[in-house]
Automatic annotation (TrEMBL), chain A:
<dbReference type="GO" id="GO:0016491">
    <property type="term" value="F:oxidoreductase activity"/>
</dbReference>
<dbReference type="InterPro" id="IPR051267">
    <property type="entry name" value="STEAP_metalloreductase"/>
</dbReference>
<protein>
    <submittedName>
        <fullName>NAD(P)-binding domain-containing protein</fullName>
    </submittedName>
</protein>
<feature type="domain" description="Pyrroline-5-carboxylate reductase catalytic N-terminal">
    <location>
        <begin position="6"/>
        <end position="104"/>
    </location>
</feature>
<dbReference type="InterPro" id="IPR036291">
    <property type="entry name" value="NAD(P)-bd_dom_sf"/>
</dbReference>
<keyword id="KW-0560">Oxidoreductase</keyword>
<dbReference type="InterPro" id="IPR028939">
    <property type="entry name" value="P5C_Rdtase_cat_N"/>
</dbReference>
<dbReference type="Pfam" id="PF03807">
    <property type="entry name" value="F420_oxidored"/>
</dbReference>
From TrEMBL, chain B:
<dbReference type="InterPro" id="IPR000595">
    <property type="entry name" value="cNMP-bd_dom"/>
</dbReference>
<feature type="domain" description="Cyclic nucleotide-binding">
    <location>
        <begin position="14"/>
        <end position="114"/>
    </location>
</feature>
<dbReference type="Pfam" id="PF00027">
    <property type="entry name" value="cNMP_binding"/>
</dbReference>
<protein>
    <submittedName>
        <fullName>Crp/Fnr family transcriptional regulator</fullName>
    </submittedName>
</protein>
<dbReference type="InterPro" id="IPR014710">
    <property type="entry name" value="RmlC-like_jellyroll"/>
</dbReference>
<dbReference type="InterPro" id="IPR018490">
    <property type="entry name" value="cNMP-bd_dom_sf"/>
</dbReference>
Amino acid sequence: MKTKQTIAVIGATGNMGSAISRALSNANYRLLLFAKDQAKLQTLVEEIRKSNVVADIESVDCSVNASWEADIILLAVPYQAEKEIAEKIREVANQKVVVSISNPLNTSFNGMVTEPDTSAAEELQKQLPHSKVVKAFNTTFAADFSTPVIDGKQVDSFIAGNHEEALQTASELVVAAGFYPILAGDLSVSRTLENMALLLIQETIKSNYDWLAGWKVLHH
Amino acid sequence: MYDLFFKKFRERIDLSPEEEIQIKSYLIPKKIRRRQYLLQEGDICKHIAFVEKGALREYSIEGGTEHIILFALEGWTVADLFSFLTGEPAVYTIDALEDSELVLISKSSHEELLQTQPKYETYMRLLITDAYIALQKRLTSSISLPIEERYKNFVETYPDIVQRVPQHMIASYMGLSPETLSRVRKKMLNQK
């Protein structure tokens, strides 16, 4: 596709937000970055422009305006902040693809704060009934974006959602970021994906992977 | 965000508040900046765009030259209809002449609304009928009227476009070179 799609990255200065923004700035997208800390955001935008002079990237000082201008809204914020943002952007996110990357982990990293019969993505979908929520990038660490091939294997990135078009869009984002996309199923599969992230985080801490680790389905 | 969209809708067909809420749930609010593309030739046109605020143009590019087929100001609807309806690559490009606010309707939403909301179907039929009539008028005028008449008609029918759009684009829309249009305008000024 020649026509550039605009992505609003909400929470762009976080670990994940900045990693995703850097990765996608190399692809055919226009990026609108939003973060609460505008000074930090400016620094990030300048850094990205320095490493890629043709990057189509801009900072925006309002999450609603960024989302209004966007075709795709990427919420790169923790689960706890997701609700608040979703409330703000509900109207301008109507019928748009909203990517949820969050993992609703408790503070001791040994379980979820969500009930077992739901997930962060499904909760977001309830809050944004007319948006197309997809789960993506929650099983990949921030460091994976600069090293999407680990130990000779391309990291898999799992996607879940209920809308065909939105899954396609998310799959393109995953490919643009350098990962191998796996369409895992409808939005309820987010429960599995969020638990996969929990397991990966636990293993990473236990085995000291230095936050460079990922999931890979091996097959013949 | 959708004020003008529903104002225009209500000018043709009455809507209950419930019907408005139902239709609204399918609409995409989208801002676009000046010079940004909504659609580039060769891509598939995935949306019908209604202009809430601002101005867009639709054009084809032949051998590096732009041929404008449509200006869309507030209240107008723009799409590469052929591409939208068939899923074939678009032959037209659409970009913004000013920072604009749009209301987009995707193909799947359009089809679902046609199925579930008879008033939407009626409204769409009226829009397409209007567009067809406008196209016939334009065709007749461009094959049968002298240039001066055509320009005079254009200025009378679309004074807003003349105000807001650069002359060379109006020339392109009329199939004239900028020099020819400039000559015609001078001549008309002298006649006044």
